[in-house]
Each structure stands twice: as structure tokens, then as C-alpha cells.
Amino acid sequence: MLLSLLLAVALIAVCFRPQTIRKRNPDAPEPRALTGANPSAATDANPIDNTEIFVRQHYADFLSREPDEDGLAFWIDNIDSCDEDAQCREVKRIDTSAAYFLS
Q1: Is 45 left (phi over 0), alpha (psi -120 to 50) or beta?
Q2: Rounded to an integer, what distance in angstroms lies between the CA atom of residue 49 and that of residue 16?
Q3: Cα Rg for the chain, rounded, in angstroms?
């Protein structure tokens, strides 16, 4: 079971890794990393870094549905309870993913 959990976490990490587009046209602009956002957007922020998007995506991927209001608030509050502590947020996100995986 622990192996399954570790594999799920590794799969999530691989799925959200930025990808690079290779250009075929030498006159084309330089390639840039894809983050899931509109490539022409002014910001390079990855949308999955937003807690609400992260939780909504888990509902869609694992439960195949939109979140209910109480469940969405529970998981968002759980992750956001870390405030700006990046290590705590990472652990809470992993725990959240594990909970969805095991549901």
C-alpha cells in the first residue's frame, strides 16, 4: 500500500513537471516551458500552484465530479493552514493527493 501511495505521488509530480517545446522553424521565437497556462499569458505562474485549482483538479481526476462546497472548503483550508511555509504546504498537498488516491 505504501508503494502504491509513493507511485501515485511520483506520478503526480511527473504530470505537473514543465515541458519544453522544440522549435522546428529557425525563425520562430525561442521555446519556453509550458505550465498549463496560456503560453501567451503575461505571467509564468503555474495554475496548479493555486490551492483551489489543485483541489478542484483532484476532484475531477479522482472522483470525476465537481467538488461540493463543504469538501472544497475543507481541503483548501487544510492546505492553506500552512500560510507561507513552503515545506508544510508541500506535505499537505502530498497528504491531500494520498487521501484522494486512497478514496
Answers
A1: beta
A2: 10
A3: 16
